[in-house]
Amino acid sequence: PKVFYTQPDGQVRVVDGAVGDSVMSTAVKNGVNGIVGQCGGTLSCATCHVYLEPGEMEYFADPSEDEDEMLDCTASDREDNSRLSCQLTLSDGVDLHVTIPDEQV
Ligand code: FES
Fold first, then answer.
1. What is the Cα 102 distance to its own chain's centre?
2. Per residue, what are the HEC states of 44-91?
3. Which residues line ligand 1 (CB under 6 A)?
4. Each residue's pLDDT tens digit, 66-104
């Protein structure tokens, strides 16, 4: 599956991801700017914050309580489509579009 990462300035980077990887780890492995993933995906930072394309929210379960709490600690404003990208796992045949916020720390 492909992940389309849109930077705050509008530049888009498309990365071929692997099923089972997260949107966060896919970004880190491929050197996509703006997704830090400081805690390695254990829901103890909020440096993997992304805005998920609203139409793609339905591919995922609602945020867990832990994710919901961490989403209140993001450096950039939380929006309705805010997610922590370490919780967004790639599935076969499902391309995803995320926008990276201005600030992560
Ligand atoms: Fe730390 Fe996602 S990488 S919460």
1. 13
2. CCCCCEEEECHHHHHHCCCCCHHHHHHHCCCCCCCCCCEEEHHHCECC
3. 24, 37-39, 41, 43-48, 70, 84, 86
4. 999 999 999 999 999 999 999 999 999 999 999 999 999
Q: Residue 86: which of 35, 14, 31 has the closest Cα?
A: 35
Pocket test for ligand 1, best of 21, 26, 28, 45 (most atoms within 8 A of CB): 45
ipTM: 0.99
pTM score, whole prediction: 0.97
- Protein residue with least CA distance to atom 4, ligand 1: 43
